[in-house]
Automatic annotation (TrEMBL):
It comes from Chitinophaga silvatica. This is Glutaminase. Keywords: Acetylation, Hydrolase. PANTHER family: GLUTAMINASE, GLUTAMINASE 1. It catalyses: L-glutamine + H2O = L-glutamate + NH4(+). It comes from the Bacteria. Belongs to the glutaminase family. NCBIfam families: Gln_ase, PRK12356.1. It holds the Pfam family Glutaminase. Substrate binds at S69, N120, E165, N172, Y196, Y248, V266.
């Protein structure tokens, strides 16, 4: 992206967005996972990380919330790091489903692959592919260490969220075994689902996600830690996955109105990546019908439009 833009312009736009939406009460906390229903609905934070490592912060950017589906990006990156971009395409795919994140119908429609690592089915397959296959403890270490490298600091398991989600994830259990039925599980289905559930239950801050977005925007080089986390050539693949399905059935509307590839989670986080410019994350628990944070969407859209930026 060639557009010249100053940190002061970005800061001003982010502050305006923060003030404009901080009292917005639209949306409702996710309640199909009991822990999420009880999170303070007024929490709100916006964090931006520039590619020189400077960060811009407004609001609750240090609050550790459930990373949920944003973690699907991290684990897709880990599959690419361990097995390469072709293997991800062949075993999972890079297509939009046009359907909700937890759709079983999407699996039935595309029996030969789970479409994308950024919906539940593809993310559970991705967990099954993580190496070393057969060793859940080592796989978990690899998942956490990959997130740590991408975000520049470690995430922390929210045990209460993990217990809450494990006790209620019946739909995901069906997905896992349906994938097994179609030969799209590469490790034990229950253990792969458990890894997925645990990664979704990691606590992360908006600041950490902004740094991860910036690492993707910076061709795999974490701008804060200066670590080359993944091969530069993979960054366009990762960004294309996010652009294609980051907002599930609303991804087209999102890209059309915001101009930035971004990934959401029902914990209220949204992580965006603008190649060559910055990573951005916003967090606010109340979500819309598709499971996407209302305030985080409004804030990021406002900033993108105010700065007249678009990935296109
Ligand atoms: O599998 C689930 O239902 C949750 N762990 C994650 C869903 C999610 O975050 C959807 N995204 N907005």
């Amino acid at each position: 992206m060639n557009k010249t833009i100053t940190i002061d312009q970005i800061k001003a736009a982010a502050e305006e967005a923060y003030q404009l939406y901080r009292n917005n009460t639209a949306g409702k906390n996710a309640d199909y996972i009991p822990y999420l229903a009880n999170i303070d609905k007024n929490l709100f934070g916006i964090s931006i990380c520039l590619l020189d490592g400077r960060t811009i912060e407004f609001g609750d950017t240090q609050y550790k919330f459930g990373i949920e589906s944003v973690s699907k990006v991290h684990t897709a990156i880990l599959v690419i790091r361990q097995s390469g971009t072709d293997e991800l395409l062949n075993k999972i795919g890079a297509d939009a489903t046009g359907l909700p994140f937890n759709s079983i119908f999407a699996i039935l429609l595309e029996k030969d692959h789970p479409s994308t690592p950024l919906v539940n089915a593809g993310a559970i397959t991705a967990c099954s592919m993580i190496q070393p296959v057969g060793d859940a403890d080592k796989k978990w270490e690899a998942i956490v260490s990959n997130i740590t490298e991408l975000c520049g600091s470690a995430p922390q398991l929210i045990d209460e969220l993990y217990q809450s989600e494990s006790a209620t994830n019946f739909n995901n259990r069906s997905i896992s075994w349906l994938l097994k039925n179609y030969n799209r599980m590469y490790d034990d289905p229950d253990k792969s689902l458990d890894l997925y559930t645990r990664q979704c239950s990691l606590g992360i801050t908006a600041q950490q996600l902004a740094i991860c977005g910036a690492t993707i925007a910076n061709k795999g080089l974490n701008p804060v830690s200066k670590l080359q986390v993944f091969d530069a050539g993979a960054s366009s693949k990762i960004t294309s996955l996010i652009a294609t399905v980051g907002f599930y059935e609303h991804t087209g509307d999102w890209l059309y109105t915001s101009g930035i590839p971004a990934k959401t989670g029902v914990g209220g986080g949204v992580m965006g990546t603008l190649p060559g410019l910055f990573g951005i994350a916003a967090f606010a628990p109340p979500i819309d019908d598709a499971g996407n944070s209302v305030k985080a969407q409004l804030a990021i859209k406002y900033i993108m439009n105010k700065l007249e930026l678009s990935v296109f």
